[in-house]
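Allow me, if you will, to draw on your knowledge of protein folds for a short while. I have a record of one protein: its chain in single-letter code and its fold written as discrete structure tokens. I should value your view on which stretches of the chain appear to form regular backbone elements. Thank you for your consideration; the sequence and its tokens are set out here:
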Amino acid sequence: MKRIPQLIALIASLGLPVAAIAEQPNTSGLAKHFRSVEGWKFVSSVEVHDSADTFSSTSGASGNDEVLLNGDKFDRSIPYLYTANEFGDVSLRMEFTIPKNSNSGVYFMGRYEIQVYDSFGKENVDYSDLGGLYQRWIDDQSLPLEQRGYEGVAPNSNASKAPGQWQTMEVVFRAPRFDHAGKKIENAKFISVKINGKLVHENIEAKGPTRAHPLKDEASTGPIAIQGDHGPIAIRRFEVTPLTL
């Protein structure tokens, strides 16, 4: 049962400003997961109209805004979201939606990306489609572009929903292992990746950080990072659980 009207009445009877409580957004606990949500915004809903590549978002008059959005349209200035905590072995369940042709990604430990992309209706998927383990990258400008990417892994099927629909990503991730001298002895591994309940990866290794990884070295822990500057993405649930695998 909602008791906001009674609470507002009580505050008013105490001579306190009612607007102070009325204007506080209900973020459903999303904000607590991240170091900062600066550059992103909370809205009450997002919609996609007529297969547009942008969102139409609204904010509720009550401040009951529960969706975290990086923007209604593509904007290169939007920063990554980083989790407040760092993780090694971890599970993640995220509910998200994107408009047509949008592009984002979830970087485990800030280094290993599972791709978010509008792949709806695509017959042949590759590493750059929704659920793909993104390719690694050789930063050598003497090589042609087609020779600089390597080791990406395509999802085993296309589980993408239509733009504007809410989708789920569920991941169980095992961090790389290091010896006492700091030398890596086991690669990072995605134990499972599910998109909309469908298993698209099982026990695949990430032999090193993937392209555009925001953190540049490998380590035993790191934050989860969500790409904000490649296209619109809205998030309404983000559940992360540390594991020991």
